[in-house]
Write a structure and sequence with these properties.
The complex is a heterotrimer of chains A (403), B (966) and C (91).
Chain A lengths: L20 E4 L3 H14 L4 E4 L15 E2 L6 H21 L10 E5 L2 H16 L5 E3 L1 H7 L15 E5 L3 E2 L2 H14 L3 E3 L4 E7 L2 E7 L2 E4 L3 E3 L5 H6 L8 E10 L9 E4 L4 E5 L5 E7 L11 H14 L7 E12 L6 E5 L2 E8 L5 H18 L31
Parallel strand pairs in A: 1-2, 1-12, 2-8, 4-14, 12-19
Antiparallel strand pairs in A: 3-7, 4-6, 5-6, 9-10, 10-11, 13-16, 13-17, 14-15, 15-16, 18-19
Chain B lengths: L22 E5 L2 E5 L5 H7 L6 E2 L6 E2 L12 E4 L2 E5 L10 E3 L26 H4 L4 H14 L30 E13 L3 H12 L4 E4 L34 H14 L3 E4 L2 E7 L3 E7 L20 E13 L3 E4 L11 E3 H10 L7 E5 L6 H9 L3 E6 L4 E5 L6 E4 L2 E4 L2 E4 L2 E4 L2 H5 L4 E4 L4 E4 L6 E3 L23 E3 L4 E2 H9 L5 H8 L12 H12 L3 H4 L11 E2 H5 L12 H7 L2 E5 L2 E6 L29 H12 L2 E4 L4 E6 L3 H8 L12 E7 L5 E11 L2 E6 L4 H12 L7 E4 L4 E7 L3 H6 L15 E7 L2 E7 L7 E7 L3 H12 L5 E2 L2 H10 L34 H13 L3 E8 L10 E4 L2 E12 L4 E9 L8 E6 L2 E8 L9 H4 L1
Parallel strand pairs in B: 1-7, 8-9, 8-13, 9-10, 13-25, 15-21, 16-17, 16-21, 31-41
Antiparallel strand pairs in B: 1-2, 3-4, 5-6, 5-7, 11-12, 12-13, 14-22, 18-19, 19-20, 23-24, 26-27, 29-30, 31-37, 32-35, 32-36, 33-34, 34-35, 37-40, 38-39, 39-40, 42-45, 42-47, 43-44, 43-46, 44-45, 46-47
Helix pairs in contact in B: 4-5, 9-11, 15-20, 16-17
Chain C lengths: L3 E4 L3 E4 L4 E5 L10 H9 L7 E7 L7 E7 L4 E6 L11
The chains are: A alpha/beta (403), B alpha+beta (966), C mainly beta (91).
C-alpha cells in the first residue's frame, strides 16, 4: 500500500553524455514537459536539469492559485485546459496534489473595474468557463468574513465569481510529476546547472553543466526568472524584464476564508490553506530585480490592504515572507514556441505571475511541439515571433494583479 | 494548586506585597488572580494550569516548554487576538484568555483521539491518500475544519483594530498601531550583557546608539540567574569593575550605566524582527500604555498606540541576540512537565512560581549546574541529575509522571532540560551573512558578515553543546517539531522517500514551518537529516531564514489606517447639492446629483447604481435625464478639476511637445487649442488631452484624471540629458476647473466677463486668458460634450466662489450641474473616445479610429515607427477596430459585453448608453476589422441573447459639429 | 523595496522615493529600418548583474538620472545626471 511504502520518489543518476532531449529547469513547467514527452510521445531519454533542489524556483514560491477566468479567448482556452489537467492530476499520478476548487473571487471597487470583469465574464461564458459577476449580497453569502460595508476606502461593489478556481499544493505537483517522470525512466538532476549551450551552426548540439557536458539535439528553456540568462547563452534576445513578486503567510487559524480573494484595486490576494494559514500575495515590485530578498514596505502594503478587506485580522501574525522573480513580457502573455534562428531550441518562458496555473498544459503543448514539430493550436498565439509582428495578446489589459 | 514561593519575586520592582492593585484575569471565563510582573503563562501556571495548548495535528497535550517566547506550546487567544505567546505576554486586569484548538477543554480534547491513530498518518499522508477527486472533495472540508489554531471573529465590524470614518479613510479614534522612522549610527539588538557592553562601547566612541531589547528589563539571561557570583571579568568601558556580582546585580548595574548614557536610546519590549536591504531594521515595540478592551480594540478614548513599528535605518549593526535552547530528542519529549531550563528559571526567579515538586534535571554537570540550585531555592526537590544520553523517554499521558533512563525509571513531576544552545542567527542570515557548522561548539555560527555587521556574545559563539544534537531512534513518539507534530520517524521516512535535501525535507514534512519558525526544530531536523543521509552537518546545511524572525501582526505592519482621499476645490458645492460620489483613483467625483423631484441630500452617500444587473434600462435614470436635458437644452456645469494640468514653458517647449505628442504642436498659433495624444514606442495610447498655446514658449496641457504624474514624468524623461530649456510644472492642485456647456452657456458666462464670447472673437478650439467674475481664468472653448462651451481653469481658492457665481448667473437660463455619468453619455453621443476607458494597454491610435492624432509626416515622434506599422496592418484588415455602433433593437448592452461573431466572442463593448437623441442604445466597441464597415451589422451579447448593432463612424449627435461652433 | 539610492541631487534616499524607468538603451534614429525599431521596442537585455538604468526621484528633486545597479543584489554602484538621451520605453 502506497501509504506505508517509503519507495524513493525519484532516483539520482550519473549524468549521461547524451540525451534525446534536455530540459533546463525542473519546476512545474519542465517536469510537465518531460512528463508529457514520456507519456504522450514515448520520448523517455530525457534529462531534467535543476540548478537547485526540486521546486526551488517559482514552483515552490507561488501562491498556488489555479483558475481559468482570463480575459482573452486565447488565455481562457489555454488556462481552462490547464485547469482540467489539474483536476485529473491526483488520480492520474496516484498522488494527491490537494486541489481545492473552493472558488475564486476577483473584487471590483470601481465602476471601471466592474466593466473589466464583465469583459472576462462574457468571454468565459462563451468558452464554457463558469464565471459571472455577483453583487454584494451574494459575495456576503460566499465570504461572510469580508468587509462589505462602506468603511473601506474603496468599498466592494461587485465581484467576478469563478467557482472552479481554487488552490492546490504547489510542491505536491512538483513531487508528483517528478515521481511519474522517474517511473518512466526520465532522469531528474537536481543541483545541476546549465552554464552553456552548444550550437552546431543553426542547431542546438549540447548543454554544458556544472557536472559535465551533454550532447543533445533538443534543449527546452523552462526556467522562470532566468529565461533571459539561459537565452543569452544562445544569443536569442527576449522581450522580458524580471521583477520580484512577494508573498507572506500567517500563522494557522481556524477556518476563516474558503475562497480565493483577489483585489486588483488593492493590489492584494488572500486565501487560506488547508493547514489554516492565510497566504497573502502582493503586486510585483515596482522595479526590475533578480533579488529574492523580502522587503518591509511590501509587507506593510500587503498588511494594509488585507486589513481593508478583513479588518478583524489585525491581530493575526505573519510568520514568513518570501519573494520569487517573475519574467514579465510586454503583453503579460507567455512565450512558448521554437526559435526560428535555432533548430532544436524551445522556449517556455515569460510566464510573469501566471506560470504555475499553466504548468500542465504548457508542458503538454511544448512536448507535442518538440515531438511532432507541429505547433498546437492552444499555444499558437504565444510564439516569440509575435513581437516582430506586433501581434500582442491582450491579457495585459486584464489589470495588474490577477494571480 | 501550586503556590507562590516568594511573595516578592526578584527582578520585578513592584511586587504584590507593595500593595499594588490586585489583577484579575479570566481564563476561559474563570477569574484568576495574578501578580504585577506576571506573564499570562506564569499566572496560569501558579494557579495549577499545566496543559497550555493542544498540538496542531494529533491534539497532544502541551505544557510550558521554553518560557521565553520561542516555542508554540503556550499559544492562546488573549483579548480576542489569536495565537498569543502567553509566556511573554504580561497580564493586565480584566484580560480575557481563551484556550485554542481543543474541544471542549484543554484537559479533555475530543480530537486527541487523532493521536492514537498517528501511526496511520505517516509523513506525506495526504499526498498518498484520497487521490480520487471525488473522495478528496468529500474529505477536504473535514480536514479544513479541524486545521488551524486560533480563531478570529468572522464579523468584519466586530473588531476593526481602529475606528475610522468611512468617508475619510483615516483613523477616527486612537490608532492601535503606530509607525515611526528613525535613523541611528549604531543599532544594538539584544539587551543581554554582550549587547549592553557593546552599546556602552559604541556610545563611548561617540556614536548615537539605539539598543533594542525584547524584555521588559535589560540584562538578558542574567536577570533570572541565581544569586551566586556571576563568572567572568566584567569591566565597563568607563573602567568600573563589576566582576564578582551576582547575575541580577550585574544586570542592574550595567543597565543603570546604559540608561544614564545620553547617547544610548533604549527600546524595551521591542523585537527586531528583520534586517532588510539598505540597513533597515524592522523593530516592533510593545507600548506599556497600551491596554486592549475585551475585543482587542483600544479602549474608548484611548489615544495611545498599543504597538509601534519602527523603521530603523542604521549605519552599523551589532547583533547580540544571544542563544536560545532547543528541545532535545527523546520519546515523549513533548509531555507537559518537560521544561527547558530557561522556562524553569524564569518561573522561579521572575515570577516566584514553583515549577514543580519533584524534578529530574538533565544536565552534563553532575550537580545539575546553576538550575539545580535555583530549583532548590524554589523549594523543588531534586530527584536526580542525569546526563542527556541516559534519558530514554518521558512517562505519563497528560503530564509527566516519571522518566525512563538507561538505568531504570525515575518518578518526577518536572523534567528540566539543558536544551541544545542555538545561537539566535535569524538576523545574521538576513544580513546576508553565512552560517557555518562549528563542530567544536556543535552549533551553526556566523561566518562571513557584511562589513556593517558585528556579532557579539552568544550569537557569535556558545559554550560548547556537550553532545548536541542527538537524533535518537526513529521513533514516532519523539517530536522534532512541536508546532507541526513532526516526529523523528516522519523525517526518517521522508529521507528514505527521497526528500533528502534539507529544503525538500522541510517542505514535505513541514518541519520548521510552524509558528516557532524552526527555533525548536531546525537544529535537530538537520541532525536527523544528516544522520539518515550519512552527510555531515556542514554539508546538510540550514533552511533559509526568512523575515520576520518573530511573528508580527498585520495590524502592526499596516500601522495607522491611512488611505488618501483627494477632493476638488468644489467639493463643498457638490456636498451641498447632495451628490452621489464615485471614486476615480484617489479622487472623489460627483457621479450624479439628485433628480430635481428628490429632496436634496436624500441620496447622500448612497451606493452607485446597481452594477450587477444584466442590462441597462432603455430609459435613462431620472437623474441622468434631468442633467442631460440641462446641457442639451439649456446650460450645464461640471467640475473637471480632477483633470491633470501641466504648465510647460521654455524656448524648447515646442520641440519637446513635437517629439513626445503624436500631433504637431509647434505650428499652433497663439490662442489655439488642440486635442493631442501620447503613445509609447510600441504605439500604445498612453493618454490624451488638450494642448493650448498661450505664448511662443508657453503651453497649457490637460491630461486624464490620474495620469498627471505619469505624463509629467514622461515629458521630463524625453528631455533628460538633452540640455533643452523647458520647465514642466504640475499645476493640478493649484487650479479648479469647470466646464460650462449648452445652448445658453454663452449667455451665462457673458454676464461675468468682459471678454467677448462671440464665435468671431472667440472661436471653437481657441483659448483666452480672461477675467470671469473677477477671477483670472484660462478659458478653453472646447466641446467634449458636444455643445457650445468653455472650460474654465482658475485658482483653486476661488473654486466655490466662481461655481456659486456661475450657478447664480445661469439660474435664469435653467443651469444644472451634471456629474460623470451624464458627461459620459454626452460624450458618447459625440463618439469621443476616452483613453483608458475605451482603450486599454494594448490599443493604438490607428485601430482606435484616432488616426488623426498621429502626424506621420513629422520626422520623428515617440511611437512613430510602431504607428506606421499599425497603419500598414490596418490595410491588411488583420486587427481589431474601435467603432461606434447603434443598436437595431431596444436593448442597451452593458459596458464590457461581448461582441459575438460566428458563435464566439470576437470583441467587446467598451461604453454603451441609451441615447435620448437617437432613441436607441449607442456605444463604442472593439470588433474584428472585417466587420468594421459603416452600416455593417454585428451581434452583441445582451442578457443571454444576441442584440443587433450597426457600425457607424459618425458622431451620433450633431455629426457635423455645428453646435460646437455656434 | 528598501535599498538605498544616492540621488545625484539629493543624496542617499530609500528606493521608495524613486520610480524605476528602464534599462538604458539607445534609440534608433528617425527613419531606421523597422527591424531596428522592433528590437529597440521589445528586446531587453534584462541583465542579471550590473546594468545602467533610468531612475526618477519622484519624492525629491523630480529629476531623471542614470544609476549603475547590480540587479542581482540591488547594490547601486553609482549614479549620475544623464548625459545620454532617454532610451527605453516606460514600463
Amino acid at each position: 500500500m502506497q501509504l506505508f511504502s517509503h519507495e524513493r520518489m525519484w532516483r539520482s543518476h550519473e549524468l549521461k553524455s547524451r540525451y534525446d532531449a534536455v530540459i533546463i529547469g525542473a519546476g512545474v513547467h519542465g517536469l510537465a514537459t518531460a512528463y508529457y514527452l514520456g507519456k504522450d510521445h514515448g520520448l523517455r531519454d530525457v534529462a531534467l536539469l535543476e540548478k537547485s533542489y526540486l521546486g526551488a524556483g517559482n514552483s515552490g514560491r507561488n501562491t498556488a492559485i489555479v483558475r481559468a477566468n482570463y480575459r482573452t479567448a486565447e488565455g481562457v482556452a489555454f488556462y481552462d485546459a490547464s485547469l482540467k489537467l489539474y483536476e485529473e492530476m491526483s488520480s492520474e499520478l496516484g498522488w494527491n496534489v490537494l486541489l481545492n476548487q473552493c472558488g475564486h473571487l476577483t473584487l471590483a471597487h470601481t465602476d471601471s473595474a466592474i466593466n473589466g470583469l464583465r469583459v472576462r465574464a462574457e468571454t468565459n461564458r462563451f468558452l464554457g468557463v463558469d464565471s459571472r459577476i455577483i453583487g454584494p449580497d451574494e459575495i456576503h453569502k460566499l465570504v461572510p468574513t469580508l468587509d462589505l460595508s462602506r468603511r473601506p476606502r474603496y468599498p466592494i461593489l461587485a465581484a467576478l465569481y469563478h467557482p472552479p478556481g481554487g488552490i492546490i499544493r504547489h510542491d505536491a505537483v512538483v513531487w508528483g510529476y517528478a515521481r511519474a517522470c522517474d517511473r518512466m525512466g526520465i532522469e531528474i538532476h537536481p543541483f545541476t546547472e546549465a552554464v552553456g549551450i552548444r550550437m552546431d551552426g543553426q542547431s542546438v548540439s549540447g548543454v554544458v553543466t556544472n557536472r559535465g557536458e551533454i550532447s543533445t539535439r533538443v534543449v527546452a528553456n523552462c526556467t522562470a526568472g532566468w529565461a533571459s540568462k539561459v537565452c543569452q547563452m544562445v544569443r536569442v534576445p527576449l522581450p522580458i524584464v524580471t521583477y520580484p513578486l512577494q508573498a507572506c503567510v500567517t500563522e494557522p487559524l481556524k477556518p476563516f476564508l474558503d475562497k480565493v480573494i483577489v483585489s486588483a484595486t488593492l493590489h492584494v490576494y488572500v486565501n487560506q490553506t488547508d493547514r489554516g494559514e492565510l497566504v497573502i500575495g502582493a503586486e510585483i515590485d515596482p522595479y526590475q530585480s533578480y533579488s529574492m530578498k523580502s522587503t518591509l514596505p511590501t509587507l506593510e502594503q500587503m498588511a494594509t490592504y488585507t486589513l481593508e478587506l478583513f479588518p478583524q485580522l489585525h491581530g493575526v501574525k505573519v510568520l514568513r515572507q518570501w519573494a520569487g522573480i517573475c519574467d514579465m513580457t510586454p503583453d503579460f502573455a507567455p512565450i512558448i514556441s521554437g526559435v526560428e534562428s535555432l533548430k532544436g531550441f524551445y522556449l517556455d518562458v515569460g510566464w510573469g505571475t501566471y506560470g504555475f496555473k499553466a504548468g500542465p498544459i504548457a508542458g503538454r503543448c511544448l512536448a507535442s511541439l518538440i515531438a511532432t514539430g507541429e505547433t498546437p493550436k492552444l499555444i499558437a498565439p504565444f510564439s516569440l515571433s509575435r513581437f516582430r509582428q506586433d501581434r500582442l495578446v491582450g491579457e495585459k489589459a486584464a489589470a495588474a494583479v490577477s494571480h | 494548586m501550586a503556590h507562590p514561593v516568594d511573595p516578592s519575586p526578584p527582578g520585578h520592582p513592584g511586587g504584590a506585597s507593595e500593595g499594588v492593585c490586585p489583577i484579575t484575569i479570566f481564563f476561559d471565563g474563570k477569574p484568576i488572580s495574578a501578580q504585577p510582573g506576571d506573564t499570562v503563562a506564569s499566572a496560569l501556571y501558579r494557579c495549577g494550569v499545566r496543559i497550555f495548548s493542544r498540538s496542531f495535528k494529533y491534539h497532544r497535550p502541551r505544557g510550558l516548554l521554553c518560557g521565553s517566547g520561542h516555542c508554540p506550546n503556550c499559544l492562546m487567544t488573549v483579548d480576542g487576538i489569536p495565537n498569543v505567546r502567553t509566556c511573554i505576554t504580561r497580564v493586565h486586569d480584566g484580560q480575557k484568555v481563551r484556550h485554542q484548538n481543543a474541544t471542549p477543554s484543554l484537559e479533555n480534547d475530543w480530537l486527541s483521539v487523532s493521536g492514537f491513530f498517528s501511526w496511520l498518518m505517516p509523513v506525506g499522508f495526504y499526498y498518498k491518500t484520497f487521490t480520487h477527486p471525488l473522495v478528496w472533495r468529500g474529505v477536504e472540508p473535514l480536514i479544513r475544519k479541524v486545521a488551524g489554531l486560533g480563531e478570529v471573529s468572522p464579523e468584519p465590524a466586530a473588531d476593526a483594530g481602529s475606528e475610522s470614518h468611512p468617508e475619510h479613510g483615516s483613523t477616527g479614534a486612537g490608532p492601535a498601531y503606530a509607525h515611526i522612522f528613525w535613523h541611528t549610527e549604531v543599532a544594538v539588538v539584544g539587551g543581554g550583557p554582550a549587547g549592553l557592553l557593546a552599546a556602552l562601547q559604541a556610545a563611548r566612541s561617540g556614536g548615537r546608539v539605539v539598543l533594542i531589547d525584547d524584555q521588559p528589563e535589560l540584562g538578558g539571561h542574567l536577570r533570572f540567574q541565581g544569586k551566586g557570583r556571576h563568572s567572568g571579568e566584567w569591566v565597563m568601558p568607563d573602567g568600573q569593575d563589576l566582576s564578582g556580582l551576582s547575575g541580577p546585580d550585574l544586570a542592574r548595574k550595567m543597565a543603570e550605566q546604559v540608561v544614564k548614557e545620553p547617547r544610548i536610546r533604549v527600546l524595551q519590549d521591542s523585537t527586531c524582527f528583520g534586517l532588510y536591504e539598505g540597513r533597515l531594521l524592522g523593530v516592533l515595540q510593545k507600548l506599556a500604555g497600551g491596554q486592549r478592551t475585551a475585543n482587542g480594540s483600544p479602549s474608548a478614548g484611548h489615544s495611545q498606540a498599543l504597538e509601534r513599528l519602527i523603521y530603523l535605518r542604521t549605519q552599523r549593526l551589532v547583533v547580540a541576540t544571544g542563544a536560545y535552547e532547543a528541545l532535545p530528542l527523546f520519546e515523549n519529549n513533548d509531555l507537559p512537565g518537560v521544561m527547558l531550563r530557561s522556562a524553569a528559571q524564569r518561573l522561579a526567579h521572575l515570577h516566584g512560581v514553583q515549577p514543580g515538586k519533584r524534578a529530574v534535571i538533565v544536565s552534563e554537570q553532575a550537580d545539575g549546574g546553576p538550575v539545580a540550585a535555583d530549583l532548590k531555592v524554589a523549594g523543588v526537590e531534586i530527584e536526580a541529575v542525569i546526563p542527556r544520553r541516559e534519558l530514554v523517554s518521558a512517562l505519563g499521558r497528560k503530564h509527566i509522571k516519571g522518566i525512563r533512563t538507561t538505568r531504570g525509571d525515575l518518578a518526577c513531576d518536572l523534567l528540566v532540560l539543558e536544551g541544545d544552545r542555538v545561537p539566535d542567527a535569524g538576523l545574521i542570515a538576513q544580513a546576508g551573512g553565512s552560517l557555518r557548522w562549528e563542530e567544536g561548539q556543535r552549533a551553526f555560527l556566523p561566518g562571513e558578515m557584511p562589513p556593517f555587521v558585528t556579532v557579539v556574545g552568544e550569537a557569535a559563539g556558545i559554550q560548547p553543546n556537550p553532545e548536541a544534537p542527538l537524533p535518537g531512534p526513529c521513533s514516532k513518539k519523539t517530536f522534532v517539531c512541536v508546532c507541526e507534530d513532526v516526529t523523528v520517524k516522519d523525517l526518517c521516512d521522508a529521507v528514505q522517500e527521497g526528500f533528502d535535501h534539507i529544503q525538500t525535507l522541510k517542505r514535505y514534512s513541514t518541519v520548521t514551518m510552524g509558528p516557532c519558525q524552526g527555533r525548536m526544530c531546525q537544529l535537530s531536523s538537520i541532525a536527523v537529516c544528516a544522520r539518515q543521509t550519512g552527510r555531515a552537518m556542514e554539508q546538510t546545511g540550514t533552511t533559509t531564514s526568512r523575515p520576520p524572525t518573530l511573528p508580527i501582526s498585520l495590524g502592526s505592519l499596516a500601522g495607522p489606517r491611512h488611505h488618501p482621499v483627494r477632493r476638488t476645490p468644489l467639493h463643498p458645492c457638490h456636498e451641498a447639492l447632495g451628490c452621489t460620489w464615485m471614486d476615480m483613483g484617489d479622487w472623489k467625483r460627483p457621479h450624479h446629483y439628485p433628480a430635481p423631484a428628490a429632496e436634496p441630500g436624500a441620496s447622500g452617500h448612497g451606493a452607485t447604481p446597481a452594477h450587477t444587473s444584466t442590462s441597462h434600462s432603455h430609459h435613462l435614470p431620472t437623474f441622468v435625464e434631468a442633467e442631460y436635458r440641462a446641457v442639451r437644452e439649456r446650460v450645464g456645469i461640471i467640475d473637471v478639476s480632477t483633470l491633470g494640468r501641466l504648465d510647460v514653458r521654455g524656448k524648447d517647449a515646442p520641440k519637446l511637445l513635437d517629439k513626445v505628442y503624436t500631433n504637431r504642436l509647434s505650428d499652433m498659433k497663439l490662442g489655439r487649442v488642440r486635442h493631442a495624444a501620447l503613445c509609447d514606442e510600441a504605439g500604445i495610447l498612453l493618454d490624451d488631452g488638450t494642448v493650448s498655446r498661450l505664448a511662443e514658449d508657453h503651453y497649457f496641457i490637460t491630461t486624464s484624471t490620474g495620469n498627471i504624474e505619469f505624463v509629467q514624468q514622461w515629458l521630463e524623461w524625453w528631455m533628460a540629458g538633452a540640455g533643452w530649456c523647458v520647465h514642466v510644472t504640475n499645476v493640478t492642485g493649484g487650479l479648479a476647473a469647470v466646464n460650462v456647456a449648452g445652448p445658453k452657456a454663452r449667455e451665462t458666462l457673458a454676464g461675468l466677463t468682459g471678454t467677448s464670447l462671440e464665435t468671431a472673437a472667440f472661436p471653437y478650439m481657441n483659448c483666452r486668458q480672461a477675467d470671469v467674475g473677477g477671477v483670472p481664468c484660462l478659458m478653453l472653448r472646447i466641446g467634449f460634450v458636444g455643445e457650445t462651451g468653455w472650460e474654465l481653469h482658475f485658482p483653486a481658492e476661488y473654486g466655490e466662489y466662481l461655481w456659486d457665481l456661475v450657478m447664480k448667473e445661469g439660474q435664469p437660463f435653467g443651469i444644472g450641474a451634471f456629474g460623470v455619468e451624464t458627461q459620459r453619455l454626452l460624450r458618447l453621443e459625440k463618439k469621443h473616445v476616452i483613453v483608458g476607458v475605451d482603450t486599454d494597454a494594448t490599443s493604438n491610435p490607428m485601430d482606435a479610429d484616432m488616426a488623426w492624432v498621429a502626424k506621420l509626416d513629422k520626422e520623428d515622434f515617440i511611437g512613430k515607427a510602431a504607428i506606421l506599422r499599425f497603419q500598414a496592418r490596418l490595410a491588411t484588415g488583420q486587427s481589431e477596430r474601435l467603432v461606434g455602433f447603434v443598436m437595431e433593437d431596444d436593448s442597451v448592452p452593458l459596458d464590457g459585453s461581448a461582441v459575438v461573431h460566428g458563435g464566439r466572442p470576437a470583441g467587446r463593448v467598451t461604453s454603451c448608453r441609451f441615447s435620448p437623441s437617437i432613441g436607441r442604445g449607442i456605444g463604442l466597441a472593439w470588433i474584428p476589422s472585417a466587420l468594421a464597415h459603416a452600416g455593417r451589422h454585428f451581434s452583441i451579447h445582451v442578457n443571454g441573447q444576441l442584440g443587433q448593432a450597426r457600425v457607424t463612424f459618425q458622431p451620433f449627435y450633431d455629426p457635423e459639429g455645428k453646435r460646437l461652433r455656434m | 523595496m528598501s535599498f538605498l539610492i544616492p540621488c545625484p541631487n539629493c543624496g542617499e534616499r530609500s528606493v521608495y522615493e524613486f520610480r524605476f524607468g528602464a534599462e538604458v538603451k539607445s534609440r534608433p534614429s528617425a527613419g531606421s529600418p523597422s527591424e531596428d525599431w522592433l528590437r529597440y521596442t521589445y528586446v531587453k537585455q534584462n541583465e542579471s548583474g550590473v546594468q545602467k538604468e533610468w531612475w526618477y526621484h519622484r519624492m525629491g528633486c523630480r529629476q531623471w538620472f542614470i544609476a549603475v545597479r547590480n540587479t542581482a543584489t540591488n547594490e547601486v554602484l553609482s549614479t549620475s545626471l544623464p548625459e545620454e538621451k532617454p532610451g527605453g520605453t516606460s514600463s
